[in-house]
Amino acid sequence: MSLKDINHIVLVLSGKGGVGKSSVTTQLALTLSLQGHSVGVLDIDLTGPSIPRFFGIETSKVRQAPGGWIPVPVHEANKARAEQNGNGHVNGSGDASNDIGKDRGYGALQCMSLGFLLANRGDAVVWRGPKKTAMVRQFLSDVQWGALDYLLIDTPPGTSDEHISLVETLLKETTPEQLAGAVIVTTPQAISISDVRKEINFCRKTDVSILGVVENMAGFVCPNCSECTNVFSKGGGEVMAKEFEVPFLGSVPIDPMFIRLIEEGKRPVYPEGTVIDGKAMDVDTAESSEEGLLVEKYTACSLSPIFDGMATQLVSAIVRH
């Protein structure tokens, strides 16, 4: 089984499409890497595989190896910080909110997605349930991840064939220590929260631990001024988390600079006075640059400190689990 050398497996789930599961998965992966962990991302959204686009590796192809596939690398490990701190963790605690991007190392990051196997990016995947189920099982058995600290699995919306096959296979083929649990993604709107309630019930029925809820799209960061406006309201995800007695990891606003980073590969730059999540952003006087790795450019994003706090909570929850 290709999962035997993976320490912790985390599912990213939501009952509704369009809430930003892939965005949250991408940023959690980048943040865990920045905290010194080796990370893999498995995209099982078979009809809408977007992970290759988020990581800027759409043109990459997987390589065959004896017994399976070699996942596509996003970046190799940079040991600078691990050597500096001696243990591969920021300040020994995972708290890096004050020094994100400042001469820090990072762990290796690699991905696997059906998007790498399609002949053309726009090809439609028109499969019935049994073929989807077989593909999910093949991803879990045939991808040669090697040793990983964390494997994040980006899922399609709902509780369909892919989810059932995924959970059944993981419960059968991994240990309780390996299957850490699920991160539930919602947006503040009532319709999204209603659908996500079903996902929480799905986790409870299948004995998958819920590590926390992320409220995505809770606000909009204006690229031309210093304001963050709650376009879709805010707080619904936290209320739902309290209702179901599950951890609330935090709220994430929409940041056009993150979208620009993903779409154009440019390092985020903010106007003076920009305040995100109650914290003033450092103003970068340099022009936005396309140079550098995605993980390095992401440290300049306003969402990076937010996800750093979330990832720290997530790691602590997994350790307690």
From TrEMBL:
Main location: cytoplasm
Amino acids binding [4Fe-4S] cluster: C222, C225
Gene Ontology CC terms, in alphabetical order: cytosol
Gene Ontology biological process terms from the UniProt entry: iron-sulfur cluster assembly
One Gene Ontology term of the molecular function aspect: ATP binding
Pfam families in the cross-refs: ParA
Binding residue positions for ATP: G15, K16, G17, G18, V19, G20, K21, S22
Location in or out of the cell: Cytoplasm
PROSITE patterns: MRP
InterPro entries: Mrp-like_CS, Mrp/NBP35_ATP-bd, NUBP2/Cfd1_eukaryotes, P-loop_NTPase, YlxH/NBP35
Keywords for this protein: 4Fe-4S, ATP-binding, Cytoplasm, Iron, Iron-sulfur, Metal-binding, Nucleotide-binding
Superkingdom as given in the UniProt entry: Eukaryota
Homology family: Belongs to the Mrp/NBP35 ATP-binding proteins family. NUBP2/CFD1 subfamily.
PANTHER family cross-referenced by the UniProt entry: CYTOSOLIC FE-S CLUSTER ASSEMBLY FACTOR NUBP2, NUCLEOTIDE-BINDING PROTEIN NBP35 YEAST -RELATED
HAMAP family given in the database record: Mrp_NBP35, NUBP2
Biological role: Component of the cytosolic iron-sulfur (Fe/S) protein assembly (CIA) machinery. Required for maturation of extramitochondrial Fe-S proteins. The NBP35-CFD1 heterotetramer forms a Fe-S scaffold complex, mediating the de novo assembly of an Fe-S cluster and its transfer to target apoproteins.
Protein name according to UniProt: Cytosolic Fe-S cluster assembly factor CFD1
